[in-house]
Amino acid sequence: MPDYTTFPTKYNNYLFSFNKKYSINFHPLMSSLTHDQKLKMQNNENQLVDKKETTNLVNQNKNDKLVYYKKKYEFLREHGFFENIDNEQIIGARLKESDIEYELSNLRAIVFEITERCNLQCKYCFYGDSYNTHDSRVNLDLNILDARAIVDYLIPKWLSKLNKNPEKEIFIGFFGGEPLLNFSFIEVFVLYINQVSKNTGLTFRFNMTTNGVLLNKYIDFISNNNFALTISLDGEAFANSYRLFPNGKESFDIVFKNLRLVKEKHPDYFERNVLLNAVLHDRNDYISTQQFAWREFNKSIQGSEVNPLLTGNNFNYDGHSYDFKKSEHKRCFLSSGESLSYNMFLRNYSNNHFSAIDDLYNFNTSSNSLPTGTCNPFSKRMFVTAKGKILPCEAISHQYALGNVQGGTVNLEPKVIVKMYNGYFEKLKGRCNSCFRVNLCKECLFLNMLNDEQSLKCSFLNNESHKGLLNDYYSFFEAMPELYSEIWRKTRYA
Q: How far apart are alpha carbons 439 and 433 in whole angstroms?
C-alpha cells in the first residue's frame, strides 16, 4: 500500500505523504533515512530506526546538518508522515439504495435529447460513423409525454425532506441532434415547466446546446425565456470546416452571421447568457480559436478535444504550447480546461482544501469512499435519450443506461442501479488497491475504464509514474508562481 513518494524537480526535492495528503520540502539526507526504514521493513524487522541508532549515527557524523535532518525525520515519523494508507479501506465504500434516492431528490439538472435529427453532418460527430457508443439513429423525436413523466416522477422527490437544496432550483436542458429542429417540443415543454413552477414553488432554468444554424428564427423566444445558450463554433472558417451540411457545404458563414445577429439584437442577453464551445481537432488550435472569439465576440470559448471515445486516430488534435511571456497566452491558459486540471490537482493534493464547511470540522484524509472518480448516479445530472433511455450523463455509452421511460412510465430501480455499479467496483478493486492515485482518482468508470464488462483500461499509476505526475505539476508551479493563485481562484462549487 502507498505510504509516501519522494520526487525531485529542477529546484527542490519533495515528499508527498499519502497519509497526510500533504507535500513538504524534503532534503536528500532524509531520503536516505527513509530508505533505511524501508530496508528494515523488508527484512521483517517491522520497526523504524530507534533513538539509540539515532544517537550512534549522530556521534559518528559530527555534522550539524545531519543532526538537524535526523531530528526533522523523527518528527515527521512520529506524526505519521511515513505511515501506510489502507487502500482497501479508503475505497471500501459501496453504493446503497438510499444513495440513489438522495441523489434523485437533489437532482439539479435534466438534459433531454429531444431529437436525433440534425441539419449538419459534422465529420467528428459523437453520433457519426467514427463512434460505436450510441444506439442507431433513426431521426426519432422524444415523446413529450415521456419527458413530462420524468418531471412528474421527480416532483415529489424534489419536494421531499431529502432535498437539501435551499433554492429548489433545477436546470432543464435541450439537446440533440439539433434541438431547434424540434422547436415545437421546446415551446410546449417550457409552458409546462412554467406551470409546474407555479404549482410547486420550484425554480427552473433552461439551457440548450445548438449548432447555431436556426438561431435567427428562434432567438426571440430563447432570449425571452432566459435560456443559457451554448453555441458550437470551432473558430474561423477553416477551423470550422468539419461542420458541414449534408450536401457538403460549410456552415461557418451562416453560424457567424447568426451570432452577430444575436449580439446586435440582444446585446445584454448575448453577454450574460451565451457561451461558445469549440471541438479541438487537427484543423484548429485552441490559442488561435480563443483569440478569434475574443476579437469577434469579446467572449472566451470553451475547448475540448475530440471525444476520448472516438475510435482510431481521425481528427486527433495536435496540441499547442503557451508562451507565458505573452499576456494573451496567460489569459488563454486560464480560460482553458487545462487550467482546471491544475486546479483539480491542487484540490486533490492539498489538505488545506475543503469542499464544505463540515469537512473543515471533520477532516479525515483516509475517509471511506467509492473507488475511482466516478460520480454517484444522478449527482450531477440525468440524461434522457430520444428513445427514452435514462443515463447519468450525455457523454457515456448508451449501453450503460440505468433505466428508461416508455409510454409515460418511468422505470428506474435503485436496487438494479446499485447492483450494476457495485459489480463494476468489485472488478476494479484489485487494480485500485495497488494504484498510487487511489484516493485522488478522477477517472470516470464509464468513460475511461470499461472496454466491455470484462476488460479495463485506466490511467493506473505505479510509484514511478506517480513521481512523474508530481514532478510535472510542481515544476509548472515553480516556473509559473504568478499563475498559482490565479488557478486556485478558479475553484467553484455547485
A: 10
Q: How confident is the model at residue 138 (pLDDT cuts 50, 70, 90)?
A: confident
- Residue 357, pLDDT > 70, answer no
192 in the same domain as 239: yes
Q: Which domain holds residue 136?
A: 97-320+368-384
Query: Quick one: which of 253, 180, 172, 173 has its CA closest to 211?
Result: 180
> Higher confidence at residue 37 or residue 193?
193
Q: Are residues 28 and 77 in the same domain?
A: yes
272 and 242 in one domain?
yes
Give the pLDDT mean for 147-168.
Answer: 93
Q: Quick one: 29 exposed, middle or buried, by C-beta within 10 A (0-12, 13-18, 19+)? A: middle
The more confident residue out of 162 and 353 is: 162
Q: Mean pLDDT over all residues of the chain? A: 86
Average pLDDT in the 91-95 region?
Answer: 89
Residue 461 counted as domain residue: no
Q: Is the pLDDT of residue 134 over 80?
A: no
